[in-house]
Design goal:
By secondary structure, this protein is α/β, with parallel strands linked by helices. The chain has one domain: Rossmann fold (3-Layer(aba) Sandwich), CATH 3.40.50. It is built from nine helices and ten strands.
Amino acid sequence: MSKKNNKIDFGFDFVDPKEKNILVSKIFDNVSKKYDLMNDILSFGLHRAWKQELINMLSPQPHQILADIAGGTGDLAKNFLNNGGGKADVIDININMIKHGINKKFRNIRYIVGNCENLPIKENTYDRVSIGFGLRNITYRQKALQEIYRILKPGGRLVCLEFSHIQNEVLQNLYEIWSFKFLPRIGSLVANNEYAYKYLAESIKMFPNQEKLSFMMTKANFSRVKYKNLTDGIVALHSGWKI
């Protein structure tokens, strides 16, 4: 979370904290119908492999219950169940994203409308928590991490998949061109929303790097915190345990 004069980052802009949730919600309202398609196009399908890496790290078991935070249409939750998990709750603040997930109909998934900073869940509820490409959009990220820690059972694990900071300079330069020149244009053509994908590129640039996010997780009381770069750090998997 970046701050400037008591305001908070929204892409490259700084807005009142109360305004960020509204702005993010509007973006996802507008792109919800094409959300899954745009993920395939913009990542060249790589997001599926990245998410599978997250599922592998969760190591689903039949007795486990997952909370998929900022879970949108529920693709991570479905993957968790398909790979041997027991049950899953998809928790997202955006009703339209939730509706698109419900329309896909999948057994053993419950959809909950809720704010990640104040989850409507009892403590020590879940064996596993996932959050895929959602932490960037949360206003108070540290508070959200503390809430995730609260709802995990002792011995539970958080795995967070998020865009991160690329390790290769050549790839970084190419990625910048792709993100700021082409990504918004494709967003305009496919999802009829250039602004949403301009925000996406900016929010990635503003997000804490691997070491800073690891520190935030440690600050939220997670133990054995570690991260794994995927595709040279375009994304990273962060993991922590509630001991």
